[in-house]
Amino acid sequence: MLILGIETSCDETAAAIVDGTLEVLSNVIATQIPVHARYGGVVPELASRNHAEAILPVIEEALSVANVTMEDISGIAVTQGPGLIGSLLVGLQTAKAIAFTRNIPLIGVDHVEAHITAPMLKAPQSHPDFIPVEAPYMALVASGGHTALYDVEEIGAYRVIGHTVDDAAGEAFDKVAKLLGLPYPGGVAIQNTGEGGNASRWHFPRAMMKKGNFNFSFSGLKTSVRNHLEENGQPDSPEELTDLCASVQEAIVDALVAKTLKAAIETGRKTIVLAGGVAANKRLREKMTNACIGKGFTCVRTPMPYCTDNAAMIAGLGVQLLNREDSDFNDLALDAYANLRVGSPRNHRTGVRMV
Ligand code: KG4
Ligand code: ZN
């Protein structure tokens, strides 16, 4: 079995080939970051146009790196949502056209579900963060669009334990970076600028820590940084900027680590999975790992190439859905959806059970 995965939900045009054992044969990404960086965020119309230009060369490259041809592909998995509708449609139309002309199965994959299951992919054995992972586990998915905790019982059975009540963690990084005049995407910029800084120089809020639930809130942090800048002005030395970035990063990381740990303790899960773009954050990876050691938990950090948006995670989930006994694949009526569905009942035909 060789599955072609296609991902175009936001600002990365991606294609990958994954085999039936979840071995990743290729994982190609054409990033649009330079296109959107000057606007400080993703411009939906520009994103769809760029996907339309990049999609076919990216698929060709994925086939070529995997050293296979389209004749070898046994099925297609494509991101159906959540995401920008115009962007999603480019991937969906391409996937439908290939599936129709080649007469192979087509399966719509949920982007967040793919992040949750991304560490199941077989990264090269040499990858320092590769740990074979099996459900059940507690997954923290922290990205630019979503931040939530999922109790993963098995593929397709996810219970939402907590979620952000306002901004996503990646959104908080991006918005604070914008306030500081740092480039998009803000998470990487804040991490790199804050490297070696004094993270306790300023204390920014860790919201909802005392609440009995597992929800997050990051909009107060952004306001607090804005107030700080109004009172003190922009940092007037590189050292001040470094300390400010380190302090902001620490506040976001602390909230993510505390709530994830609490959720694992209360549900009895012994494995914590870090997933989504923000899971690429070095400080989060380090702090969650140390916290897990203290509690006797296993911390599975999704290998870096599969944290930020990629098509290997889409193909990998496609393989697992098509391998299920109750698997059912989609017809050409498959449509895009904009909003979060994981953790709530779905009505499209993937044969996936949501709890
Ligand atoms: O998963 P992703 O690629 O796209 C979405 O599904 O949203 O996540 C993108 C988010 C952006 O907000 C970006 O700032 C953040 O992930 N991000 C990071 C890092 N790398 C990407 N945040 C913190 N530290 C990083 N190293
Ligand atoms: Zn994502």
User: What's the number of domains?
Assistant: 2
CATH topology of the largest domain: Nucleotidyltransferase, domain 5
Strand content: 15-25%
SS content category: alpha/beta
| Name of the CATH homologous superfamily of the largest domain | ATPase, nucleotide binding domain
Features:
Nucleotidyltransferase, domain 5; 5-stranded mixed beta sheet; alpha/beta; binds zinc ion; 355 residues; disordered C terminus; binds 5'-O-[(R)-(carboxyoxy)(hydroxy)phosphoryl]adenosine
Describe the overall structure:
The protein has 355 residues and is α/β, with parallel strands linked by helices. The protein has two domains: 2-123 and 307-354, ATPase, nucleotide binding domain (Nucleotidyltransferase, domain 5); 137-302, Nucleotidyltransferase, domain 5 (2-Layer Sandwich). Helices cover 40% and strands 18% of the residues. The chain contains ten helices and ten strands. The protein has helices spanning 33-37, 44-66, 85-102, 111-117, 169-179, 186-194, 219-232, 238-267, 282-295, 312-323, and strands at 2-7, 12-19, 24-31, 75-81, 106-110, 137-142, 147-154, 157-163, 271-275, 298-301. The strands form two sheets. A five-stranded mixed β-sheet has the order 3-2-1-4-5, sandwiched between helices. Helix 5 (169-179) runs parallel beside helix 7. It starts with a strand and ends in a 32-residue tail after the last helix. Residues 345-355 have low confidence and may be disordered. The structure holds 5'-O-[(R)-(carboxyoxy)(hydroxy)phosphoryl]adenosine and zinc ion. 5'-O-[(R)-(carboxyoxy)(hydroxy)phosphoryl]adenosine binds next to helix 5 and helix 6.
